Amino acid sequence: MIDTWLFAALCLFILAACAFLRAIPGPSPFDRIIAANAGVTIALSGILLLGIAWGSLVLIEAAVVAGLLCYGGIFAMAHTVRGEPS
Amino acid sequence: MSSVVADIAIWLLLFAGVGFAGIGLIGLLLFPDIRSRRYTAVRATLIGLSATVLAVILYGVYELQASGGGQYTVLLALAILLAATVFAGNMAVSKEILARAVRTDYCSPATPPAEPAGPDT
């Protein structure tokens, strides 16, 4: 029987991939930032569940560090981006 | 709390987490303007993350009571730290996007407001 944590993590990773794919077309830079933000949030949820499924606390620590870096980068992009209205 | 009740609660919370993440993605794909997309994506994914973290906390508390062990305490602390990180990051990015989108008039309505009716000639 498939592990519930692993199945939920897999579903969240698929949703995160869809959100990252949504970031490609845009059309405006803010659309890309919003999609990347949602994708990072969903992917971090998936990493948390993957850490439970694999019994690895290091994975969750890495998720915290990756979250800090990703949100820092997304905030910097949101602060500096300039673009034309879509 | 029996194991069956804990398992059902964890399953329901995981289902809610995946469901709200899906709702956030659907809102990201379907809504027409940036403000509604931002609102739906941020709120729904945060609710999904909250449900996921609640499931992890429930699992950690149950295992801590059942068998003890320091790893479950570390798991609870890491889950709360991850939730705090994601909440703070989402709030900061969301406020920045809202401020800049309003300032650059990204949220203009699809149809311009109707002109006030002038006096009849």
Would you write up a description of this structure?
The complex is a heterodimer of chains A (86) and B (121). Chain A has 86 residues and is mainly α. Chain A has one domain. Helices cover 80% and strands 0% of the residues of chain A. The termini of chain A are far apart. The longest helix of chain B is centred in the middle third of the chain and has 34 residues, at 34-67. Chain B has a single domain (3-103), classed as Helix Hairpins (Orthogonal Bundle). Chain B is mostly helical and 121 residues long. Chain B is elongated and about 80 Å long. Chain B has helices spanning 3-30, 34-67, 70-103. At the A-B interface, helix 1, helix 2 and helix 3 of A face helix 1, helix 2 and helix 3 of B.
Largest beta sheet of chain B, briefly?
none
| Cα gyration radius of chain A (Å) | 15 Å
Structural domain tally of chain B: 1
Order of helices and strands of chain B: HHH
Order of helices and strands of chain A: HHH
The helical percent of chain A reads over 70%
Multimeric status of the protein: heterodimer
Structural classification of chain B? mainly alpha
Regions with little confidence, pLDDT below 50 for 5+ residues of chain B: none
What are the salient characteristics of this protein?
heterodimer, A: 86 residues, B: mainly alpha, Helix Hairpins, elongated
Structure at a glance:
Chain A is 80% helix and 0% strand. Chain A is mostly helical and 86 residues long.
SSE topology sketch:
The complex is a heterodimer of chains A (86) and B (121).
Chain A: H1 4-22, H2 29-54, H3 57-80
Chain B: H1 3-30, H2 34-67, H3 70-103
